[in-house]
Amino acid sequence: MADDLFNSFMTGPDESGRFGKFGGRFVSETLMPLILELEQQYEHAKTDDSFWDEMNDLWTHYVGRPSPLYHASRLTEHLGGAKVYMKRDELNHTGAHKINNVLGQIILARRMGKTRIIAETGAGQHGVATATVCAKFGLKCVVYMGAHDVERQKPNVFRMRLLGAEVIPVTSGRGTLKDAMNDALRDWVTNVRDTFYCIGTVAGPHPYPAMVRDFQQIIGKEAKAQMQAAEGRLPDTIIAAIGGGSNAMGLFYPFLDDKTVEIIGVEAGGKGVNDKMEHCASLTGGRPGVLHGNRTYLLQDDDGQILEGYSISAGLDYPGIGPEHSWLHDIGRAKYVSVTDKEALAAFQLCCQQEGIIPALEPSHALAHVIKIAPELPKDHIICMNMCGRGDKDIFTVARHLGFDMEDAD
Ligand SMILES: *Cc1c(COP(=O)(O)O)cnc(C)c1O
Known about the structure:
Layout: E1 18-19, E2 22-23, H1 32-45, H2 49-63, E3 69-71, H3 73-79, E4 83-87, H4 98-111, E5 116-121, H5 125-137, E6 140-146, H6 147-152, H7 154-162, E7 166-170, H8 177-190, E8 195-197, H9 208-216, H10 218-231, E9 237-241, H11 246-252, E10 262-270, H12 282-285, E11 287-291, E12 294-298, H13 323-331, E13 335-340, H14 341-355, H15 361-373, E14 382-386, H16 395-402
Parallel strand pairs: 4-14, 5-6, 5-8, 6-7, 9-10, 9-14, 10-13
Antiparallel strand pairs: 1-2, 3-4, 11-12
Helix pairs in contact: 2-4, 3-14, 4-5, 4-9, 5-7, 9-11, 10-11, 14-15
The structure holds pyridoxal-5'-phosphate.
């Protein structure tokens, strides 16, 4: 842990974009000038009040921030231990936290004079958020999506097309998120002049992990102020689900130097982390390597081939994790656990029944960990979990797992 006098957990990354031995900029020479220009422009924008004025105005009037901090009183009573709060980012426009970041990157793109936005998406949520903001600003939007995911995520593909985006199915490699990322990077180098690459989580080459975190930390800043207003103190434990790690980094970052606050990230344990990679727990079940321009923990086989991973929640099946999480894990400031599909499904149902909130399957993982630990904790222990997305998109998956036939229902 840091020395009290001068060390802070909030100073990273260093000039080369590293958080300890993680992060950095592992990109081809052709990409380097684009990354450097982006870094320079972002460094300028982030200290410019007019940038944040525009952001705050849209956060308020377009996204619907601040999102409430909600005391889940029935769930708290049901669990019989710690007091449970939910940060309600599922109430944002487009139903999740992703738009917080997309808005920041697109305001930046506009300042840089870019007119064409590219993105890659797995489950489609980042693609939808990007298509949404592009429509709002009249920007051309191109979304790369693995062919396999295009098949699996038809409603989101249709949403993106309704919003005016071009969805390009990627058939190279195995036709998944990792391949879509590679095609997006290739597009960027060939369309340097007018194109901005909008990344959806705290991954990619520097400055993306830091920039996305900066845009998402509004979650933690609000939660901190709201918790002070509600309880007059900080929470004892904060918990968030991890795909690439952006909603978690957004909640965690403002609390990193508050040493009384325990920080827990919840990875997707799928069918169990001890199995044959039928999970997406990069930290709990992976090891360090390089993917998507940065060094971090990854799911890989003995030869270093990136593995696809599996989770009931499509939004959690990123094969890596943001480099700042890898660092927080290695220095011990945050703890990372995993939750299985089964546990997440049970949490999903309990949340519906106890709180009248249909959560996305991603935050259901965070909630499942709350359900595990809250009963053993004293009643004055405060937990704040990030309800980072709503579950409308997931009801078909849940119905299938519960054996409910949507066709026959009336
Ligand atoms: C995309 C998504 C995630 C996973 O991404 P992070 O970068 O880890 O936040 C989690 N929850 C929801 C609701 C999502 O849409």
